[in-house]
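sorry for the late reply, my laptop died twice this morning and i had to redo everyting from scratch. anyway the thing you sent over, i finally got around to it. pasting the sequence first so we're on the same page, its 168 residues, then the predicted structure underneath. double check i copied it right bc i was rushing
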Amino acid sequence: MNKKITVLNPFASGDYVVYPAHGVGKVADITKQSVAGTELELIVVNFDKDKMTLRIPMAKAETTGLRKISGEETMADALNTLKGKPRVKKVMWSRRAQEYENKINSGSPVAIAEVIRDLYRSENLAEQSYSERQIYEQALDRLANEYAVFESISAEDATKKLLGILAK
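ok and here's the structure:
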C-alpha cells in the first residue's frame, strides 16, 4: 500500500524562503522520501546562520507559513512602519513580550518592523531590560536578513540601513 502525495511546487532549489519560526533560509533541494509507506515530497531548507536543516513536507509548506522573500510593496510597508511613532501599550511586560514574540514568529515583515519600532532605543534614551534587548535583537536580525536578500546586500549593511531609518 504505497500512497503518493504530490502538490504543486512554488519553490525551486536555490530560492531564498522565510520560515516564520526561523527566519530566512535557502532551499537546498526538493526531494522525495518514503515515510511510513507514504512517499512525501520534501522541501529541504538550510539555515546557514543557525547551522540547521529543515525538511518540510510540500503538502504542509503553506500551513507552516513557508513563503518566498517579500516583494517590494510588503518591504516598503515594513520600512514605513519603522518610520512611525512607537506604540507601547501600558500592559505588563510579560504580556507585551508574548505579543512581540508572536509578531516575530508570524514571519510578517510589517509585524516584525512594529516590534523593532516599539522596542528601539536611541543612544540617549533609557536602558532596555535584558529581555527587551533580546526580543529587539531577534526582530532586528529577522528583518535585516530578509531585507538583505531582498536588496542583495550583506546582513550587516541591511542592519545599518534599518538602524539609519530608525534613527531619523
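Helices lie at 61-64, 72-83, 93-106, 109-119, 130-151, 155-167.
thats about all i looked at so far, will dig more tmrw
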